Amino acid sequence: MLSRALFHSLRRTCATRTVRLVHASAQQKASTSPFTEPTSPNPALSKYAETTGQLHTYGSYLTQCLPKFIQQFSVVKDELTLYVAPSAILPVLQFLRDHSQCQFKSIMDISGVDFPEREKRFEVVYHMLSVKYRGRIRVKTYAGEGDHVPSAVELFRGADWYEREAWDLFGIFFSGHPDLRRILTDYGFEGHPLRKDFPLTGYTELRYDEERKRVVYEPLQLTQAFRNFESLSPWEQVGDGTAPIRPDNLKPLPPPKPEEQKK
C-alpha cells in the first residue's frame, strides 16, 4: 500500500517537474507485453478506493520515468504490479531501489507461476518493500522453457536463495547467479515439482529398507487391491436429477397399519 507521505511527495515532485528522466529510456518504448491483466484501477467503490487512485497515479509516474522498460502496470485493490521484459528486470529493480521516490531496498520474495498453455509459460514475480515509505510493489516478468532471466543477486544479496528456489521448483534459469543449484529437493532429484506437468506422485519412491538398513530410491509402483463396486442402489431415484422436485411431486407415504395406530 502506498503511504500518504510518498503520495504527497510524488505530487510535489510532479508539480515542480524536478525529476529528470533517463534520456535513453525516454527515447524508446517498451516491448509488447504478453500479459493480459487489466491496467486500469479497480472501479468498484470499496475501502481501497482512495489507495487505488493513489497507486494508479504512482504507476503512471513510474511508467513515464521508464517508458523503455515498463510494458504496463495494473492496480487491484491496494496492490501495484509492474510488467517488464526479462532484459529490463535489472534496470527496473535498480531504479526502484535507488530512486528517491521509490526506495524499495528490500526484496521479500521471488516466486514463479507456471502457465503451460502460454508460449512463455513461466511468470517470475519479484516482491519489493520500501521501509521508508511503508509501501510494497510487485514486478513481473516472463520466461519460456529454455529462456533465462538475469540474476538480481548483484542488486539484492537476499535474492540468492529465492532464485535457487525458483530454479529448483520450476526450472527457471537465472543467468549470472553465483551458485545456482537445488535448495529444497534431494540430491539427484529429477524434474521440477511445482510445474503443472509434474505428476503428483513423482517419479521415484523414497523409503527405508529394513534389510539394507538405509534409505533407498525405487521406481514408483502404485498398486491397488481389486474392488468390486455394487452397481445397484437401494435408493429410488426421483426425477432425472436435473429438474427441481417439489414436495407435492413425491410419492405419498402409505397409511399406517392398524397395529401401529394402536401403539
How would you sum up this structure in a few lines?
The chain is 24% helix and 22% strand. With 263 residues, it is α/β, with parallel strands linked by helices. It is found in: Mitochondrion.
Describe this protein's structure.
The chain is α/β, with parallel strands linked by helices and 263 residues long. The chain has a domain at 4-184: 2-Layer Sandwich (Beta Polymerase, domain 2). Helices cover 24% and strands 22% of the residues. It contains 6 helices and 9 strands, in the order H-H-H-E-E-H-E-E-E-E-H-E-E-E-H. The strands form 3 sheets. The protein has a 5-stranded mixed β-sheet with strand order 1-2-5-4-3. It has a two-stranded parallel ribbon with strand order 6-7. It has a two-stranded antiparallel ribbon with strand order 8-9. The radius of gyration is 29 Å and the shape is flat. The N and C termini lie far apart (72 Å). Mean pLDDT is 82; it is low at 15-27. Its main location: mitochondrion. Belongs to the complex I 30 kDa subunit family. InterPro entries: NADH_DH_suC (IPR010218), NADH_quin_OxRdtase_su_C/D-like (IPR037232), NADH_UbQ_OxRdtase_30kDa_su (IPR001268), NADH_UbQ_OxRdtase_CS (IPR020396). This is NADH:ubiquinone oxidoreductase 30kDa subunit domain-containing protein. One of its GO terms (cellular component) is mitochondrion.
